[in-house]
């Protein structure tokens, strides 16, 4: 059987419109937008493999390994998003570091169902979330001095997404990102995620995580002033504001009762706020 005999990618049908943040919007330089979209598709396909409930963990890891091999130049057309990503990296001169980092995170998703504490969760975010922003910054030739604020923003977005999907992740995949230490501290149990509404003990867990996420968002406010590219500076300011808004929605809403998400008003308001905040000249923060 040749490498091309069976596709390794398992598309879910999700697209950029499902995300909490803009992906390769009109604010991004026109010549870079296709490369942003290629990176998004690559990460999306890898995520779909890791989240496919019909695949065994070892099969998920095998498929992700194959995507990594194609990314590095292995022949075969069984992982088209990885092949497109490789061509993008060649064209832009960006290394495959960030792509391999997200593959590492999705291998963790395939095999790791629980997290001990906040540092353990942040280690996961280092590979699942931070590389997305780092790829964008590298594409624009930005200083790596922006990485700490970027990592804070991307980690905040990741935790917010975990809270949005906490019930579904548990029901569909038996995966729980809520740290065991926080659950124990509040007297909550993983099984609480099956309830139709969050009991007070689980609400305390959410609030503890939102407190820490709020600290990350405050750190992330240093990102836009440090970005030189005008479009990326504005987009990063918009995303910071979206993170602020989603944090507040999750404080007021119950993700077990319904999926808490950003509204059209939030995106419109963040566009105005972000463009205003991102209007200054960027440089080293």
Structure description:
By secondary structure, this protein is mainly α. The protein has 2 domains: 26-111, no CATH class; 113-277, Farnesyl Diphosphate Synthase, CATH 1.10.600. Helix content is 62%, strand content 0%. It has 13 helices and no strands. The chain has helices spanning 33-51, 57-71, 80-92, 97-111, 118-128, 130-139, 147-164, 166-173, 180-186, 200-220, 223-226, 230-252, 264-277. Helix 10 (200-220) packs antiparallel against helix 12. The N and C termini lie far apart (53 Å).
Task: Considering the chains and any ligands shown, give keywords for the structure.
single chain; about 60% helix; Farnesyl Diphosphate Synthase; 2 domains; about 280 residues; about 0% strand; disordered N terminus; mainly alpha
Layout of strands and helices, then pairs:
Layout: H1 33-51, H2 57-71, H3 80-92, H4 97-111, H5 118-128, H6 130-139, H7 147-164, H8 166-173, H9 180-186, H10 200-220, H11 223-226, H12 230-252, H13 264-277
Helix pairs in contact: 1-3, 1-4, 1-6, 2-3, 2-4, 4-5, 4-6, 5-7, 6-7, 7-10, 7-12, 9-10, 10-12, 12-13
The largest pleated sheet is described as: none
Helical content band = 55-70%
Overall body shape: globular
Mean pLDDT: 92
CATH topology of the largest domain: Farnesyl Diphosphate Synthase
Strand content: under 5%
CATH superfamily of the largest domain: Farnesyl Diphosphate Synthase
Count of spatially separate domains: 2
Query: What would you report as the Rg, rounded to the nearest angstrom?
Result: 19 Å
How many DSSP-defined strands?
Answer: 0
Please identify the structural class as seen in this structure: mainly alpha
The CATH architecture of the largest domain can be given as Orthogonal Bundle
Determine and state the CATH class of the largest domain: Mainly Alpha
Unreliable parts: 1-5
Order of helices and strands: HHHHHHHHHHHHH
Oligomeric state, counting identical vs distinct chains: single chain
| Number of helical stretches of at least 4 residues | 13
The span between the termini is: 53 Å
């Amino acid at each position: 059987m040749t490498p091309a005999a069976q596709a390794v990618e398992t598309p879910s049908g999700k697209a950029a419109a499902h995300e909490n943040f803009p992906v390769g919007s009109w604010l991004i330089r026109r010549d870079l937008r296709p490369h942003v979209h290629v990176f998004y598709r690559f990460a999306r396909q890898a995520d779909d493999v890791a989240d496919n409930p019909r695949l065994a963990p070892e099969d998920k890891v095998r498929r992700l390994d194959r995507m990594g091999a194609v990314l590095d130049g292995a022949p075969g057309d069984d992982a088209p998003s990885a092949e497109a990503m490789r061509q993008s990296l060649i064209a832009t001169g960006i290394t495959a570091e960030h792509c391999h980092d997200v593959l590492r995170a999705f291998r963790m998703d395939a095999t790791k169902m629980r997290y001990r504490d906040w540092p353990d969760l942040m280690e996961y975010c280092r590979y699942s979330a931070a590389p997305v922003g780092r790829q964008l910054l590298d594409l624009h030739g930005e200083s790596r001095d922006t990485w700490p604020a970027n990592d804070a923003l991307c980690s905040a977005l990741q935790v917010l997404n975990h809270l949005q999907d906490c019930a579904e992740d548990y029901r569909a995949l038996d995966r729980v990102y809520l740290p065991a230490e926080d659950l124990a501290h509040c007297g909550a149990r993983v099984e609480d995620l099956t309830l139709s509404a969050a009991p007070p003990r689980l609400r305390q867990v959410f609030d503890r995580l939102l407190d820490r996420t709020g600290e990350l968002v405050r750190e992330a406010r240093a990102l836009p002033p440090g970005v030189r590219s005008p479009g990326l500076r504005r987009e990063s300011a918009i995303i910071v504001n979206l993170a602020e808004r989603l944090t507040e929605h999750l404080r007021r809403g119950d993700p077990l009762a319904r999926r808490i998400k950003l509204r059209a008003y939030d995106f419109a308001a963040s566009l105005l706020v972000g463009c205003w905040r991102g209007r200054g000249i960027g440089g080293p923060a």
